[in-house]
Amino acid sequence: MQDRCIALFREVQDTICSGLERADGGAPFREDLWDRPGGGGGRSRVLVDGGIFEKAGVNFSEVHGELDPAFAGEMPGDGPTFHATGISLVLHPASPRIPSVHANFRRIERGSAAWFGGGADLTPYIPCDDDARHFHRTLKAVCDRHGHDRYPDYKAHCDRYFHLPHRGEMRGVGGIFFDGLGGDPEAELAFVADAARSFLDTYLPIVERHRDEPSTERERRFQLLRRGRYAEFNLLYDRGTRFGLKTAGRVESILISMPPLARWEYDFRPEPGSDEAAVIAMLQPRDWAS
Amino acid sequence: MQDRCIALFREVQDTICSGLERADGGAPFREDLWDRPGGGGGRSRVLVDGGIFEKAGVNFSEVHGELDPAFAGEMPGDGPTFHATGISLVLHPASPRIPSVHANFRRIERGSAAWFGGGADLTPYIPCDDDARHFHRTLKAVCDRHGHDRYPDYKAHCDRYFHLPHRGEMRGVGGIFFDGLGGDPEAELAFVADAARSFLDTYLPIVERHRDEPSTERERRFQLLRRGRYAEFNLLYDRGTRFGLKTAGRVESILISMPPLARWEYDFRPEPGSDEAAVIAMLQPRDWAS
User: Fold this and answer.
1) What DSSP letter does each residue of chain B carry, written as one string?
2) What is the spatial distance between Cα B151 and Cα B143, in angstroms, rounded to a whole number?
3) Which has more pLDDT, A30 or B76?
4) Does B255 contact A264 at a Cβ distance shorter than 8 Å?
5) What is the pTM of this model?
């Protein structure tokens, strides 16, 4: 199962990078291979200042070794050794007309336990309901192929997880998030493989819809402000980021998710009725799929 | 003692804001008065897009009430109620030739215990040893007026505190940091008052030195990258920020410290022998005062 997952995630990284490079048209991915001192390593790919993407990071990793005792208590399973393999990506388009997106899919093994986790979430900078609808409906279709409980469950989990309590808002319009899928390994692998292989379908049509739209300075400014919130989420709350940094992971691969440029403005308040106010109104749990 | 500290910190906020406005010459401070639902409140002042400062935030606050049980265990003293008053400031100049600076001074009371804390640290973007020397020597002179143990002790504490373990570097060139000063209240108040009133002397001469120097696009880019590290420190490690956000403090006043614009670049490595490499070499503990 471990080997099949490694092969799956490598394949998905290749397919996603090829698809993104084709869509971008302006710059190739650069690849860095790295070893983890404690065991394993990864293949980080990043595309910078492309035709569409200001920064696109797509990581594959396969790491194993001894768990940090400080974190062992927070993880399911037993014993000191673990094995984890997965893919994670964050795409920050240059144009504020195109949303940022994050996805990751992983399998973790610890002692006698093994489980899948992952998800995908969308962060728009303009109020376009159709984007949120397309993203959620595509994810729901994938989930439904593997059981009708999945989408409502993972959608609600995503709404809870990608949430900034100090701001009282979500990072974006959500998507799906799941963890601890430890049931029938074949069924879970089939679901995760389907979700990972569907990523481009959830996102590229949104890119196509907006890629030729002109954007304004005001939209750019608001995008940078929202990217500040993205940075806040990653550094204050994201479990993967905090876990990685506190366990001496490869810093550049962990922080590949950070926005290329972000802005903080004291006490920003959108004008009532403005596009900015409409985007912020989208950052609450909502039924986007039906 | 409480009332005298409140009066001191209000006075210092006024003096510092006047001095900064005069130096800036381009924009005034805007003031927001706010109440804390649990008790107390504050006076936040921010200057944006001025002649020197891209963003300057200077907060006074005086808050009291019941401690969050989750944090009560981490604090000295006894009992559920606390009183805290202080001033904190972060200045982000527009020009990369001028360093960013942070300072804060506070007094906290909990049950039968009361103590002072605070400090100041400097974050340069160009390699100018004279700036670090001036900053440290001025702080040392202040400390020495109140006992010769203070500077070495507080300087070392600052080097440890303003440190990004995941980067293996300090946020800047340090300064002083102290906490738990619970000895003779009159002597400690005299020290804190002297340090707070000396802030402009530690920093404004550095502003004057560089204010008319032209800067390059490359320096600006590096400044934004270093401001990304500043954001990392604030959100990942700064105890004040994390404490404030987790205890439902006033978000805009807490995050006033965030840089107005910050950049993240994948796997940035300075060219050997470059100014960027020289700045990064400064981000390790060093004796700047002698």
Assistant:
1) -HHHHHHHHHHHHHHHHHHHHHHH-S-PPEEEEEE-TTSEEEEEEEEES-SSEEEEEEEEEEEEEEPPHHHHTTSSS-SSEEEEEEEEEEEEESSTTS-EEEEEEEEEEETTEEEEEEEEEEE-SS--HHHHHHHHHHHHHHHHTT-TTHHHHHHHHHHHHSEETTTTEESSS-EEEEEEE-S-HHHHHHHHHHHHHTHHHHHHHHHHHHTT----HHHHHHHHHHHHHHHHHHHHT-HHHHHHHHTT--HHHHGGGS-SEEE--TT--PPTTSHHHHHHHHSS------
2) 5
3) A30
4) yes
5) 0.94
**Angstroms from B158 CA to nearest CA on chain A:** 21
Per-residue pLDDT band at B247 (split at 50, 70, 90): low
Which chain A residues have a beta carbon less than 8 Å from that of B100?
none
B165-198 tens-digit pLDDT:
999 999 999 999 999 999 999 999 999 999 999 9
Cβ separation A48–B266 shorter than 8 A? yes
- Is some CB atom of chain A closer than 8 A to the CB atom of B256? yes
Which residues of A form the catalytic set?
A: 102
In a 13 Å sphere around the CA of A75, the CA atoms on its Cβ side amount to 28
Chain A residues in contact with B235 by the CB 8 A cut-off are 231-232, 235-236
pLDDT at A159 > cutoff 90: yes
Q: What is the pLDDT of residue A23?
A: 98
- The CATH topology of domain B2-282 is oxygen-dependent coproporphyrinogen oxidase (3.40.1500)
Q: Which residue of B has its CA nearest to A56?
A: B266
Residue type (1 letter), B97: R
Q: What is the pLDDT of residue A249?
A: 76
Q: Is B102 a catalytic residue?
A: yes
What's the mean pLDDT in B40-63?
96
How many CB atoms neighbour CB B89 within 10 A?
Answer: 25
Q: What is the mean pLDDT of residues A184-203?
A: 97
Residues 6+ apart with CB under 8 A from A55: A46, A47, A48, A49, A91, A92, A259, A260, B264, B266
Among chain A residues, CA nearest to B241: A236
Is the confidence at residue A209, as pLDDT, over 80?
A: yes
A74 band by pLDDT with thresholds 50, 70 and 90:
confident
Contact A116, A2 (CB under 8 A): no
Domain boundaries, chain B: 2-282
